[in-house]
Amino acid sequence: MRRNLFFALVATALLTSCDDGPIEEKSYASSEGKNVKLEGVITGVDEWPDGFSVNLAGFVPDDDSYATIAKIVPSEQTGDYHVSMYLKAIPMEVTSVRLCLLNNLRQHIATFAEVDISDASSRDTVYFHVDTISAGMFTAIQKSYLTTTCAACHGATGRAAAGLFLTEDKSYEALVGQPSKKVEGQMIVKPGSAEESVLYQALTTELTQDWREYHRDLVSEYYEQNILPIIRSWIDNGAQR
Ligand code: HEC
How far is Cα 56 from Cα 58, in angstroms, rounded to an integer? Predict the structure, then answer.
Protein backbone atom coordinates (compact mmCIF):
# COMPACT_ATOMS: atom_id res chain seq x y z
CA MET A 1 0.00 0.00 0.00
CA ARG A 2 2.67 2.50 1.14
CA ARG A 3 4.93 1.25 -1.57
CA ASN A 4 2.32 1.93 -4.23
CA LEU A 5 1.77 5.38 -2.85
CA PHE A 6 5.50 6.02 -2.98
CA PHE A 7 5.69 4.98 -6.62
CA ALA A 8 2.64 7.05 -7.44
CA LEU A 9 4.28 10.10 -5.89
CA VAL A 10 7.54 9.52 -7.77
CA ALA A 11 5.64 8.97 -11.00
CA THR A 12 3.67 12.16 -10.40
CA ALA A 13 6.85 14.13 -9.73
CA LEU A 14 8.44 12.82 -12.92
CA LEU A 15 5.39 13.43 -15.05
CA THR A 16 4.64 16.88 -13.72
CA SER A 17 8.23 17.89 -14.35
CA CYS A 18 7.61 17.46 -18.10
CA ASP A 19 6.21 20.55 -19.75
CA ASP A 20 3.45 18.96 -21.74
CA GLY A 21 2.44 15.85 -19.80
CA PRO A 22 -1.07 14.56 -20.35
CA ILE A 23 -3.78 16.39 -18.43
CA GLU A 24 -4.94 13.35 -16.43
CA GLU A 25 -1.69 13.23 -14.54
CA LYS A 26 -2.72 16.32 -12.64
CA SER A 27 -5.40 14.34 -10.83
CA TYR A 28 -2.59 12.57 -8.92
CA ALA A 29 -1.63 15.82 -7.31
CA SER A 30 -5.14 16.78 -6.24
CA SER A 31 -6.90 14.86 -3.47
CA GLU A 32 -9.84 17.22 -3.19
CA GLY A 33 -12.54 14.73 -4.18
CA LYS A 34 -16.07 15.24 -5.43
CA ASN A 35 -18.96 16.94 -3.61
CA VAL A 36 -22.69 16.27 -3.52
CA LYS A 37 -25.40 18.63 -2.37
CA LEU A 38 -28.67 16.98 -1.30
CA GLU A 39 -31.91 18.99 -1.40
CA GLY A 40 -35.42 17.82 -0.72
CA VAL A 41 -38.20 17.16 1.74
CA ILE A 42 -37.43 13.94 3.57
CA THR A 43 -39.92 12.22 5.85
CA GLY A 44 -39.42 9.48 8.44
CA VAL A 45 -35.81 10.36 9.38
CA ASP A 46 -36.81 10.57 13.05
CA GLU A 47 -38.45 7.12 13.08
CA TRP A 48 -35.24 5.15 13.36
CA PRO A 49 -34.21 3.44 16.61
CA ASP A 50 -30.61 3.21 17.89
CA GLY A 51 -28.34 1.28 15.59
CA PHE A 52 -29.87 2.62 12.36
CA SER A 53 -29.59 6.01 10.71
CA VAL A 54 -30.52 7.74 7.48
CA ASN A 55 -27.36 8.91 5.68
CA LEU A 56 -26.05 10.60 2.61
CA ALA A 57 -23.40 8.04 1.71
CA GLY A 58 -20.94 7.17 -1.06
CA PHE A 59 -20.32 3.70 -2.47
CA VAL A 60 -17.63 2.21 -4.68
CA PRO A 61 -18.72 -0.17 -7.47
CA ASP A 62 -16.98 -3.32 -6.27
CA ASP A 63 -18.04 -3.11 -2.62
CA ASP A 64 -21.56 -2.04 -2.53
CA SER A 65 -22.42 -3.38 0.90
CA TYR A 66 -20.54 -0.87 3.09
CA ALA A 67 -20.46 2.90 2.68
CA THR A 68 -17.03 4.36 1.89
CA ILE A 69 -18.03 7.77 3.21
CA ALA A 70 -21.21 8.74 5.07
CA LYS A 71 -22.88 11.64 6.81
CA ILE A 72 -26.01 11.31 8.95
CA VAL A 73 -29.08 13.25 7.85
CA PRO A 74 -30.00 15.18 11.00
CA SER A 75 -33.32 14.26 12.57
CA GLU A 76 -33.80 16.96 15.16
CA GLN A 77 -37.11 18.02 13.65
CA THR A 78 -40.09 15.70 13.63
CA GLY A 79 -42.28 15.13 10.60
CA ASP A 80 -41.49 16.40 7.11
CA TYR A 81 -38.67 18.80 6.73
CA HIS A 82 -36.53 20.33 4.10
CA VAL A 83 -32.98 19.06 3.99
CA SER A 84 -30.09 20.91 2.45
CA MET A 85 -26.74 19.28 3.14
CA TYR A 86 -23.38 18.53 1.58
CA LEU A 87 -21.22 15.44 1.43
CA LYS A 88 -17.75 16.81 0.69
CA ALA A 89 -14.32 15.46 -0.30
CA ILE A 90 -15.80 12.24 -1.63
CA PRO A 91 -13.01 9.87 -2.77
CA MET A 92 -12.69 9.70 -6.56
CA GLU A 93 -13.43 5.95 -6.67
CA VAL A 94 -16.94 6.54 -5.30
CA THR A 95 -19.41 6.35 -8.20
CA SER A 96 -22.77 6.37 -6.42
CA VAL A 97 -24.15 8.58 -3.67
CA ARG A 98 -27.32 7.44 -1.95
CA LEU A 99 -29.86 8.68 0.50
CA CYS A 100 -29.91 5.44 2.42
CA LEU A 101 -30.30 3.54 5.65
CA LEU A 102 -27.12 2.27 7.31
CA ASN A 103 -26.62 0.25 10.48
CA ASN A 104 -23.98 1.21 13.01
CA LEU A 105 -21.32 -0.76 11.10
CA ARG A 106 -22.00 1.48 8.07
CA GLN A 107 -23.52 -1.53 6.35
CA HIS A 108 -26.05 -0.65 3.68
CA ILE A 109 -29.65 -1.69 4.48
CA ALA A 110 -31.92 0.21 2.08
CA THR A 111 -31.65 2.89 -0.61
CA PHE A 112 -34.30 5.60 -0.83
CA ALA A 113 -32.74 7.56 -3.71
CA GLU A 114 -29.48 7.52 -5.62
CA VAL A 115 -27.34 9.74 -7.84
CA ASP A 116 -24.59 8.58 -10.20
CA ILE A 117 -21.41 10.62 -9.78
CA SER A 118 -19.06 8.52 -11.90
CA ASP A 119 -18.60 11.36 -14.42
CA ALA A 120 -17.87 14.06 -11.85
CA SER A 121 -14.36 15.46 -11.62
CA SER A 122 -12.48 16.43 -8.51
CA ARG A 123 -13.95 19.55 -6.88
CA ASP A 124 -17.18 19.24 -8.87
CA THR A 125 -20.45 19.57 -6.96
CA VAL A 126 -23.27 17.32 -8.11
CA TYR A 127 -26.77 18.47 -7.16
CA PHE A 128 -28.99 15.70 -5.84
CA HIS A 129 -32.66 16.75 -5.73
CA VAL A 130 -35.13 14.29 -4.25
CA ASP A 131 -38.37 16.36 -4.15
CA THR A 132 -40.41 14.72 -1.37
CA ILE A 133 -39.27 11.31 -0.29
CA SER A 134 -39.89 8.86 2.53
CA ALA A 135 -36.92 7.52 4.46
CA GLY A 136 -39.13 5.83 7.03
CA MET A 137 -39.44 2.27 8.26
CA PHE A 138 -42.10 0.97 5.94
CA THR A 139 -40.30 2.31 2.86
CA ALA A 140 -37.10 0.58 4.00
CA ILE A 141 -38.91 -2.73 4.61
CA GLN A 142 -40.54 -2.55 1.20
CA LYS A 143 -37.39 -1.69 -0.74
CA SER A 144 -34.94 -3.94 1.06
CA TYR A 145 -37.13 -6.98 1.63
CA LEU A 146 -40.69 -7.17 0.34
CA THR A 147 -39.76 -6.17 -3.22
CA THR A 148 -36.58 -8.27 -3.38
CA THR A 149 -37.54 -11.42 -1.47
CA CYS A 150 -41.31 -11.69 -1.22
CA ALA A 151 -42.90 -10.14 -4.29
CA ALA A 152 -41.70 -12.96 -6.57
CA CYS A 153 -44.51 -15.13 -5.16
CA HIS A 154 -46.65 -12.31 -3.80
CA GLY A 155 -47.73 -10.27 -6.80
CA ALA A 156 -44.78 -9.41 -9.05
CA THR A 157 -46.08 -11.67 -11.82
CA GLY A 158 -49.66 -10.47 -11.35
CA ARG A 159 -50.53 -13.50 -9.25
CA ALA A 160 -50.17 -13.45 -5.48
CA ALA A 161 -49.79 -16.45 -3.15
CA ALA A 162 -52.64 -16.45 -0.59
CA GLY A 163 -54.01 -13.39 -2.43
CA LEU A 164 -51.39 -11.28 -0.62
CA PHE A 165 -49.77 -8.60 -2.80
CA LEU A 166 -46.40 -7.46 -1.44
CA THR A 167 -45.49 -5.24 -4.41
CA GLU A 168 -44.71 -1.58 -3.80
CA ASP A 169 -48.05 -0.18 -4.89
CA LYS A 170 -50.24 -2.60 -2.95
CA SER A 171 -48.46 -4.03 0.08
CA TYR A 172 -49.39 -1.50 2.75
CA GLU A 173 -53.14 -1.87 2.19
CA ALA A 174 -52.80 -5.66 1.85
CA LEU A 175 -50.93 -6.05 5.15
CA VAL A 176 -52.01 -3.53 7.74
CA GLY A 177 -55.21 -4.33 9.61
CA GLN A 178 -56.15 -7.07 7.14
CA PRO A 179 -57.50 -10.42 8.40
CA SER A 180 -55.24 -13.41 7.75
CA LYS A 181 -56.49 -16.09 5.36
CA LYS A 182 -54.26 -18.65 7.02
CA VAL A 183 -54.73 -18.01 10.74
CA GLU A 184 -58.31 -17.47 11.80
CA GLY A 185 -58.98 -14.48 14.01
CA GLN A 186 -55.57 -12.84 13.43
CA MET A 187 -54.44 -9.90 11.38
CA ILE A 188 -51.54 -10.07 8.94
CA VAL A 189 -50.18 -6.89 10.55
CA LYS A 190 -51.79 -5.81 13.81
CA PRO A 191 -50.58 -2.27 14.51
CA GLY A 192 -48.95 -2.18 17.96
CA SER A 193 -48.15 -5.89 18.26
CA ALA A 194 -45.61 -7.75 16.15
CA GLU A 195 -46.12 -10.89 18.27
CA GLU A 196 -49.77 -11.02 17.25
CA SER A 197 -49.11 -10.33 13.56
CA VAL A 198 -49.07 -13.25 11.10
CA LEU A 199 -46.38 -11.49 9.04
CA TYR A 200 -43.95 -11.44 11.95
CA GLN A 201 -44.88 -14.94 13.12
CA ALA A 202 -44.35 -16.33 9.61
CA LEU A 203 -40.76 -15.05 9.61
CA THR A 204 -39.78 -15.81 13.22
CA THR A 205 -41.70 -18.94 14.36
CA GLU A 206 -42.62 -22.40 13.10
CA LEU A 207 -46.07 -21.14 12.03
CA THR A 208 -45.47 -21.87 8.35
CA GLN A 209 -44.03 -25.37 8.84
CA ASP A 210 -47.02 -27.01 7.13
CA TRP A 211 -47.66 -24.26 4.58
CA ARG A 212 -46.75 -24.72 0.95
CA GLU A 213 -43.80 -22.39 1.60
CA TYR A 214 -41.68 -22.56 4.77
CA HIS A 215 -41.17 -18.83 5.25
CA ARG A 216 -38.31 -19.07 7.74
CA ASP A 217 -36.12 -20.23 4.87
CA LEU A 218 -36.50 -16.74 3.41
CA VAL A 219 -34.75 -15.18 6.42
CA SER A 220 -30.96 -15.20 5.95
CA GLU A 221 -28.64 -14.24 8.77
CA TYR A 222 -28.33 -10.76 7.27
CA TYR A 223 -32.10 -10.27 7.26
CA GLU A 224 -32.37 -11.73 10.75
CA GLN A 225 -29.98 -9.07 12.06
CA ASN A 226 -31.07 -6.13 9.99
CA ILE A 227 -34.62 -6.52 8.75
CA LEU A 228 -36.51 -8.45 11.43
CA PRO A 229 -35.74 -5.87 14.15
CA ILE A 230 -36.99 -3.17 11.79
CA ILE A 231 -40.20 -5.08 11.01
CA ARG A 232 -40.76 -5.67 14.71
CA SER A 233 -40.15 -2.07 15.63
CA TRP A 234 -42.33 -0.84 12.74
CA ILE A 235 -45.32 -2.96 13.84
CA ASP A 236 -44.88 -2.33 17.58
CA ASN A 237 -44.76 1.41 16.91
CA GLY A 238 -48.09 1.42 15.10
CA ALA A 239 -47.21 0.27 11.54
CA GLN A 240 -47.23 3.78 10.03
CA ARG A 241 -46.95 4.14 6.30
C1 HEC B 1 -41.71 -19.18 -2.97
C2 HEC B 1 -42.97 -18.47 -2.84
C3 HEC B 1 -43.14 -17.52 -1.68
C4 HEC B 1 -42.30 -16.53 -1.27
C5 HEC B 1 -40.95 -16.11 -1.85
C6 HEC B 1 -42.96 -15.85 -0.17
N7 HEC B 1 -44.16 -16.43 0.09
FE8 HEC B 1 -45.50 -15.88 1.49
N9 HEC B 1 -46.75 -17.34 0.93
C10 HEC B 1 -46.51 -18.26 -0.07
C11 HEC B 1 -47.59 -19.21 -0.12
C12 HEC B 1 -47.70 -20.36 -1.11
C13 HEC B 1 -48.50 -18.84 0.87
C14 HEC B 1 -49.77 -19.55 1.22
C15 HEC B 1 -49.38 -20.78 2.01
C16 HEC B 1 -50.42 -21.88 2.00
O17 HEC B 1 -51.58 -21.59 1.66
O18 HEC B 1 -50.03 -22.99 2.35
C19 HEC B 1 -47.95 -17.65 1.52
C20 HEC B 1 -48.55 -16.97 2.56
C21 HEC B 1 -48.04 -15.86 3.20
C22 HEC B 1 -48.67 -15.16 4.29
C23 HEC B 1 -50.00 -15.47 4.93
C24 HEC B 1 -51.08 -14.54 4.40
C25 HEC B 1 -52.32 -14.64 5.22
O26 HEC B 1 -53.39 -14.28 4.70
O27 HEC B 1 -52.23 -15.04 6.40
C28 HEC B 1 -47.82 -14.14 4.64
C29 HEC B 1 -48.03 -13.10 5.75
C30 HEC B 1 -46.69 -14.21 3.78
N31 HEC B 1 -46.84 -15.26 2.91
C32 HEC B 1 -45.62 -13.32 3.83
C33 HEC B 1 -44.49 -13.43 3.04
C34 HEC B 1 -43.34 -12.57 3.17
C35 HEC B 1 -43.22 -11.42 4.15
C36 HEC B 1 -42.45 -12.99 2.26
C37 HEC B 1 -41.06 -12.47 2.02
C38 HEC B 1 -40.18 -12.60 3.14
C39 HEC B 1 -43.04 -14.11 1.55
N40 HEC B 1 -44.27 -14.36 2.04
C41 HEC B 1 -42.41 -14.78 0.52
C42 HEC B 1 -45.42 -18.28 -0.90
C43 HEC B 1 -44.33 -17.47 -0.82
Answer: 7
Length of the chain: 241
Please report which confidence band the pLDDT of residue 189 belongs to, taking 50, 70 and 90 as the band edges: very high
Pocket residues: Cβ below 6 A from ligand 1? 149-150, 152-154, 161-162, 164, 180-183, 188, 198-199, 202, 211-213, 215, 218
Share above pLDDT 70 across residues of the chain, in percent, rounded to a whole number: 85
In sequence order, the 6+-apart residues with CB closer than 8 A to the CB of 33 are 88, 89, 90, 91, 92, 122, 123
The answer to whether 187 and 179 are in contact (CB under 8 A) is yes
CA of 189 to the centre of ligand 1 (A): 13
Region 163-183: what's the mean pLDDT?
A: 97
Upper half-sphere CA count for residue 127 (Cβ side, 13 Å): 4
Q: Please classify residue 103 by burial: count the beta carbons closer than 10 Å to its beta carbon, then call 0-12 exposed, 13-18 middle and 19+ buried.
A: middle
Asked whether residue 75 carries a pLDDT value surpassing 60, the answer given is yes
pLDDT digits (tens, 9 = 90+) for 114-128: 999 999 999 999 999
